[in-house]
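Below is how a single chain appears once it has passed through the pipeline. First comes the sequence as given, then the structure the pipeline wrote out for it. We keep one example in the README because the format questions we get most often are answered faster by looking than by reading.
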Amino acid sequence: MSRGAQESVFMPSNPELTNGLIHLKSNYSVSETMARLEAALKDRGLRLFARIDHAAAAAEAGLEVRPTQVLLFGNPMVGTPMMLAAPTLAIDLPFRALIWEDATGQVWLTYNAPDYLASRHDVPDPLARNLNGLVDLLQKAAKAVQNG
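Resulting structure:
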């Protein structure tokens, strides 16, 4: 780390859910986890909107951060009706998956819990089920990074 960045070890009290976030351990590096997740989401018909490499951006600025990448993905046929019903949901859609390495070298896949998003944006119940469906697809795809 440079320029005064502090090291911290991620130790959630409940590794599966912390502050509306779900954390899953990966058995692979950040790059391999991202590649596996992208392939699995594509196989499930989801659209990949963007991939952000925070470590690469930090390096361009002369800074250092552990490997950290974000993937934005979703399905406009599902997300658009939800945003029409709850416009502030657009701040959290497309859905995001964060893949990062902690100070011990453990790689994590982190994403928003669907109940958290539904509550945060007051998504009506029938549409909130679509958030659960999207997370179900993500969880199935996540098996590619946990089990190989």
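DSSP finds five helices and five strands in the chain.

See the next section for the split statistics.
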